[in-house]
Design goal:
Strand content: 25-35%
Structural class: alpha/beta
Largest sheet: 5 strands, parallel
Oligomer: single chain
CATH topology of the largest domain: FAD/NAD(P)-binding domain
Number of helices: 21
Helix content: 10-25%
Number of domains: 7
Strand order of the largest sheet: 3-2-1-11-22
Amino acid sequence: MESRCLVVGSGISGIAAALDLAEKGKKVLLLEKTPWIGGKLSQLDFQFPNDACGMCQVYSLTSDDTVQFCLRRVLDHPFIEVLPLSELKEFRKTKGGFEVTVESKPRGVKQICTSCHKCVEACPVEVKDEFNVPTGKRKAIYIKYPLPYPDYYAIDFEKCTLCGECAKVCPVDAIDLKQKPSTKKYNVESIIWTAGFEEVDLSHLTEFGYGRFKNVITGVELERLLSQFGPTLGSLKRPGDGKTPTTIAFIQCVGSRDVKNPFCSSFCCMYSLKETRLLKKKYPDINVKVFYMDMRTFGKGHYRYWKTTDAEFVRCRVGSIEELPDGNLSIRYEDEEGKLKTDVFELVVLAQGAVSRKFQGVEPLKNSFIPVETNVEGFYYAGSAISPRDIEESIISAYAATSYADRGKKSRKNLKKFDLETQPVIILTRELDTKLKEKIYGRFGNFKIVEVTYLREEKELKQLEKKIEAPFVLVNGYPYTLLGRLREYFHPLYFELVNVYELTDGQVLSLIESAITKLKNRIIPEFEETKIPNRILVIGGGVAGLSAASKLSEHGFQVTIVEKSEKLGGNALRIRKQIDGRDVQKWLGELIEKVERDKNISILYKTQVVNVTGNIGDFEVHLRTGQEFKKKNFGAIVVATGASEYRPEEYLYGKNPNVVTQLEFEELLHGKSIKPQVVTMIQCVGSRNDKHPYCSRVCCTDAIKNALHIKELSPETEVYILARDIVMYGEKEVFYREAREKGIIFLKFREGEEPKVSERDGKIVVNVFDSSIGRNIEIETDYLVLSAGIAPNQDNKKLKELLSIDMDEDGFLSGINPKFNPLESKKPGIFVVGLARSPKAIEESILEAHAAASRIVTELGQKALTPRKFVSIVHERKCAGCGFCVDVCPYGARYIDEEFLVAKVIPSICQGCGLCTNVCPSGAAELVGVEDKSVMEILGLI
């Protein structure tokens, strides 16, 4: 029986997991409980921290003939079977994995639907649109948004009256009002649960007026109001009266960090900042005020994003909202100085909390450092199903989960090719308009024209494969949804697609002529496949490096770890326990022992990388151990060089022995018995300032962890934590509450009013203005503990040049896209993980390491790399060897052959961007698929 993996949920983590597994050669069953894929992602137009989209970046750069489609519209891969309106009801463990029971609801519309919209016009039932909230309307038969996937209609049977008007007008008989729910069993080898999160029900929070006051909306509702595809087509109009508001309030932590939902939802602060920026960009004169408790901007680039957001920020928790007769909203609150104030706003936006959706009875594995693992072997969590998280972390966890869910190698089949000298065939699918077909026959009567069905099912494509013996032009209503299926049978250079969607008949005829011209002039390059060495280089022997090496070894790769010191473990050697009590040293010791015993892993101590040449599949790396030099070849490189603790220059550090960092204090607590009367901690030392404008992410957790430990050792000790914000995101919030309950005192100070530290009579004295009570506090303390931030390694600049990768403004190394492709560098085959990329906790570094390992398996888990469809070639007789094309190539896919002094292409790396063709002064560079002769002929120039 054919093995496959089950992915439950088609948000960004489900999409990423399904694509990654499919590109590994694994068959995937993707369940989605709604009629279309996309989850919450489909409602978002822009993403922080770059206010851009970039969902197409999820596709692998090195996959065969990858076309960068928007994931809202297309998830068409030959190895992915999408089951909309389906849910996992139960599973049973079997010898080879699981037997799962899937329940599917009726769609009411068959796959032959051509999305002609006639049914919508005929439907008499209008209901509230849950996608285009808060004011959008839709019919009982509907489509989620323009060009979704799957690209056809569905019926909401809960709202449908079964009047049958839609069936009467359907031109292809696609309506089936008699469909019934069905249940089916499948055998799968693993399950990845990516069901995401659900928003907290706000009905019990009556003080905010949601559902009662028309001009109180949620963040998602504002997102849709700002969208060009939203209910107001991008024009901001408040629901109450359609007026464009000039004053807007954002209220954070609504449904989070309270008694009912004690956790922080992690992404709400950044989400509100993003919407504020979108508002100000579109309506510069709008006044925005953000009410918050702690601003948790802990991700890569997030703090800088906050500091460049134009809004007024007020630290408080809003008590209540009142609606005024004109629809405006009155907010009463107590400001940081303790004064009661009342402000009036025309629109209020609530940052609605979120809770994870988990499968009943499946829980995260206790004491594990790997969040994707559960108490059921073979069942993995990813994305916000672990805990609410943003897109970047959802994708990373999805890739980490696939590293566990699949152990297979990527396989390829021989695709059908044709003789390009033969005349192309024109293929018309059944849904095309009759008049258009007549015009096609009239214009192209000398060509063979074949009419087929809808090509929606595998049996139809198999019949087409047997039937067609020449290059072909497929004319279809939306052919790009078929591209993945076609690529399973036909080599992509031997067919062209013509999309008739929203085009005139004349335009379609012109496109068919262009497609025939392209096939007639198609160049089929003869490239050798790039052989891949089964060796991976991991630079750095800390937690991230060790985790990546171990995971790659499990997948059959030979791994070399280069460690510049004389021992493994990195920064984790200084950490005793996690805040929840997990023993770091025990776990780390077991990991190091596992790596040292692994026959697939070799470790080079006191070794550094001194030179790197080549590309993915064939990196030549020069190593130096002392005075000895070695040269080795690797298929890919993982950069896990870590970071370092900031060495404070402030607060008497280095001058008074009782002024220590959190890491030093942790070692002190575990090294000897101390019972100080007073301990004071200062947060953000070396973070969130002008020199280091980023949050170091772990400092607040470390402070509260050590503070709770002190209280265990000495309950009578007074502990003070001085901070601007306490960043305890996700489930860590419960420890913040526990700390307050155990008497740990938190004092808040403002930026620019940092604490002052001095010595008096041999004692350390801390003075701070507590903004929450509006007065100065003096603390005479036995220990002053500085929460020193994480500083980038000084070697990063050298690594940036050595590896031809990017470094961000803060000095950390970077991936291609901060949201959708965060780990892969701009140099294909080089991945950056752990602290080398940004500050993070141990379990987060492990997830990144496993995710990078999974991507390497995806891209290199085969015997050779093959070229893509759109790839550049060189006409050597025309080439002057000037090197312009080499200089502009962003992927390092071109070089100068020193013997013949002509440019050469590494086809497995070339991404077909066309920059080389633009700069080549002699016309020697040409792009396959967009051949010069075809372009000139189409334009009528030859």
